[in-house]
Amino acid sequence: MSDNIENLFYQELECIREQVKSCALTIMEHNLDESLMMDYLKQLEGVLENCVKTEHSVALARNAAKEAELRAVDETTSNPCSDLFDEVYEESLDELKQDFHVSEAIKTAPSIKAFNRLLGEQKESRNLNGQAENDDNNFEEVVTTQQTFSLLDPISKIIMTDPVRHKLCGHVYDRASVVSMIKASVKKGFRCPTMGCGYRKPLNISDLEDAPDIKREIRRQQQRGGMSSSHNHH
Ligand SMILES: [Zn+2]
Questions:
Q1: Which residue of 72, 101, 141, 192 pairs with 85 in a disulfide if CB–CB is 3.0 to 4.6 A?
Q2: CATH number reported for the structural domain that contains residue 21 in this entry
Q3: How many angstroms separate the alpha carbon of residue 195 from the centre of ligand 1?
Q4: Spacing, Cα 172 to ligand 1 middle (Å)
């Protein structure tokens, strides 16, 4: 995928997420029958899951292609060898699929976590007030908190290896993905891809700083031998 198409792809996904959010809020504003409402919301969650699945396969394919580019070289001349590429690509893709399960991506996806939090809060407020009350700001806040502790890069959806924080909004990304997105969108500017981020200006490479806290956390999780409990610290 060229960088421009890739950018479009992520913008499209972000659009879908925004629509899911506003659909969910609309559904909850109406005093629907509880089970009917939950049924609609489950379907919306399914849409978010499909977004994660799509992003996940694109991220794996991109990483496999990068790897194949490096590995597909003629052994004697060390020139790139296009005949080898397909084979190496399939191999890398298989390896990546084993290392990064889509189920794990769904379990840790900030968009889905935030959605479930929203549903939980909604249920609570219904029980308390007998009526649905929605606060948009509430939702944004939850999303931001979730994102702060996510160990997945919000762009590639893969566990970060070199996390950097954007000083002006506090969100964390993997250095390679955010730098390449910023460079690819010099004209239009690349805005923080974190859902619910209130910072609407284009990101600057000079505003990125190391995120040693996240790096430590990633290392700790990896030593523990699993990423599934990534939200259980603090
Ligand atoms: Zn942000």
A1: 72
A2: 3.30.40.10
A3: 8
A4: 8
Residue holding tokens 């190391």?
Answer: 210
- Distance from the alpha carbon of residue 193 to the mean position of ligand 1, in angstroms: 7
Starting at the earlier edge strand, list the strands of the sheet with 172-174.
Answer: 172-174, 163-166, 208-210
Ligand 1 centroid to residue 61 C-alpha, Å: 26
Query: 167 lies in which domain range?
Result: 3-223
Number of domains in the chain: 1
- In this prediction the pTM is 0.52
CA–CA gap between residue 88 and residue 94 (Å, rounded): 10
- Output the CA 147–ligand 1 centroid distance in Å: 9
pLDDT at 135 over 80: no
Please give the angle made by the CA atoms of 13, 16 and 19, to the nearest 5 degrees.
155
Ligand 1 centroid from CA 198, angstroms: 7
pLDDT higher at 119 or 112: 112
The CA 199 to ligand 1 mean position distance, Å, reads 6
Tokens 């500017």 belong to which residue? 189
Q: Are strands 163-166 and 172-174 parallel, antiparallel or unpaired?
A: antiparallel
Report CA Rg, the chain: 20
Residue 40 lies in a domain: yes
Residue 232 lies in a domain: no
